[in-house]
Amino acid sequence: MKRLLPILLLALTFTLTANAQAVKMLDAGEDINFNEPWYKKNRSDEDNFKRLVEGLKRVSTGKKVIEKATQKAAQQGYTLFDVVAIGDGSLTDTTLIRRFSASNPAQVMYETRSKVYLNKHLKTLDAMLDFAHELTHYTYREPFNPYDARFHLKDFIKSTVEGRGGEVDAYMVECKVLQEMLPGEGFSRSNCPKVYDQKVGAISKELGIQEFYKVGHHFDGLKKDLEKFAVNEKDIPQASGNEALFISSAWGLPYPVAAVKEYVNIMDRVCKNDQNRITLMQDKLGRAPASSDTLKDTQDFRLMFEDFKSRCDRFVSK
Question: Which domain of life is it from (predicted)?
Fold first, then answer.
């Protein structure tokens, strides 16, 4: 019987809110009231999402987001509406499933699945922005394998904050969508001007990175965490003690600090799963008669155990 040992990786998300009135966007289709709830019980979940999709398609950045996410879903044999769901918060769940049989724990297969959840309590404008944000994570976020010995805190922080499809990219997409929908007062009342480069007249990833690495009074604690995991401060040079504006809704902390918490949470579960796998391997070796296969299994076990010790000493109580 095969065993499934899932690791649930929650993308860090937030909601951007802007004041808006009911407007007609680009003179196309029906009027959209940005202030009304996007989710209504008298419509099916798919119909609720279709209204957001049609709204996003009316602006160029939104249209591109929908097209790319639809292509990504199709590559995996799904429609866009198969990979989205209603939730009490907005987030992108990526589940890494590791499969192996009890009779052969050394042979492992991996599978990744992602699903986007959208907060049903939002007004229409906020829902559109959150949807664009989460679809950016879904489409572009680089997959990672926490069972790999190369899975390090430094890379996880950088991937979460500034990597492809990370928080800065997703926020830039939000701001571009907002700017195209409400180019005047709506945009200026949001936090988007913080990442808008007046010199070049465009939303700037460089400014986004500067903002998202601000951790405020958590700076000393972040430095201690980096030292604990053998990460040089120079590896995360943008981190600063300036006031943090962007906070992870998943952890209630600035994103770099939240990424440390998430990394520890992931590795705790990974190492517990690896302990179970090692136990299965020990049981198999204890039952097997001596043979050439047993010798290979013993070698596999030693490699597995050495890898476990090198990665998990910090996470598994002795």
Answer: Bacteria
Query: For 178-211, what is each residue's pLDDT tens digit?
Result: 999 998 877 888 899 999 999 999 999 999 999 9
pLDDT digits (tens, 9 = 90+) for 142-156: 888 898 888 999 999
